[in-house]
């Protein structure tokens, strides 16, 4: 276990391991993974997180996060 400022929280995002800082929120993750939050939906451990709650929703170690973006076309 690592202590101090270099400690990380490992979560799974879209099937890939991702290291976040402790206390990182869904909003932080979206900012790191997406060019724009427009058209993005996020689920943490199978529960959709409303955009209005992104800033207040942190990820626990081992969380599974799905980030989905809308695509135009047909």
CATH architecture call: Roll
Total domain count: 1
Q: What's the total helix number? A: 1
User: What percent of residues are in strands?
Assistant: 25-35%
List the helices and strands in order. Answer: EEHEEE
Work out the number of β strands: 5
Strand line-up in the sheet with most strands: 2-1-5-3-4
Oligomeric state of the chains present here? single chain
Q: What is the alpha-carbon Rg in Å?
A: 13 Å
| The CATH top-level class label | Alpha Beta
Can you say what the CATH homologous superfamily is? Beta-grasp domain
Based on Cα principal axes, name the global outline. Answer: globular
Please mark out the parts with pLDDT under 50 across 5 or more consecutive residues, or reply none: none
Major sheet details: 5 strands, mixed
Provide mean pLDDT, rounded. 90
**Structural class by helix and strand composition:** mainly beta
**CATH fold naming:** Ubiquitin-like (UB roll)
Task: Give an overview in words.
By secondary structure, the chain is mainly beta. Helices cover 11% and strands 31% of the residues. It is built from one helix and five strands; from the N terminus they run E-E-H-E-E-E.
């Amino acid at each position: 276990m690592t202590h101090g400022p270099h400690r990380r929280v490992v979560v799974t995002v879209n099937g890939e391991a991702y290291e976040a800082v402790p206390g990182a929120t869904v909003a932080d993750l979206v900012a790191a993974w997406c060019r724009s939050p427009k058209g993005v939906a996020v689920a943490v451990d199978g529960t959709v997180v409303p955009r209005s709650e992104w800033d207040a929703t942190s990820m626990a170690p081992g969380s599974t996060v799905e980030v989905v973006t809308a695509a135009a076309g047909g």
